[in-house]
Design goal:
Blueprint lengths: L5 E3 L1 H6 L6 H17 L2 E2 L2 H14 L5 H12 L9 H14 L3 H12 L4 E3 L8 E2 L2 E4 L14
Parallel strand pairs: 1-2, 1-3, 3-5
Antiparallel strand pairs: 4-5
Helix pairs in contact: 3-4, 5-6
């Protein structure tokens, strides 16, 4: 069975480089390794922008700009789509129907637009279904347990 497409939210990317919590870092890296290996990872321009902004704020130091820019460049291989009217309209619809904040709704709309079955992040409630996309907290579920949600 083919691996479903996984939308990776900013928190997972940040945790993958944050050495302050080794357990979360290891789990985030586990998920990202799966995404690279199976070519099932997806992101949005919003995620890349949030990653850049938050990494610079969270990890001050002389190498931060260089390292974060390199990570953003690597993640461009996942070809995040540009924000368009279709995605914004979808986000507004999700925002209204589920009572979400706009930024969370935009993440879900981007995931849906790319055909993702899951959004990996720690903001949305774990296991909650939003139309065709289910929120998964990657720190509560290992990649090997993903099939249990099917």
């Amino acid at each position: 069975m083919a691996m479903p497409l996984l939308f990776i939210d900013t928190s997972v990317l940040l945790c993958s480089v944050d050495e302050r919590d080794s357990a979360r870092q290891a789990r985030a890296r586990e998920w990202l390794a799966l995404c690279w290996q199976e070519r099932c990872g997806r992101i949005s321009s919003q995620v890349l922008n949030e990653l850049y902004h938050n990494a610079i704020a969270c990890f001050p130091g002389p190498q931060t700009l260089h390292l974060v820019r390199a990570q953003v460049r690597r993640l461009r291989v996942w070809q995040p789509p540009h924000l368009d009217a279709y995605t914004v309209d979808g986000a507004w619809d999700l925002q209204d129907r589920y009572g979400l904040g706009y930024w969370d709704a935009l993440i879900l709309a981007s995931a849906h637009q790319q055909g993702c079955r899951y959004v990996l992040g720690d903001v949305l409630p774990h296991g909650r279904q939003y139309d065709a996309v289910r929120a998964v907290n990657p720190f509560l579920l290992a990649p090997t347990e993903l099939e249990s949600l099917e």
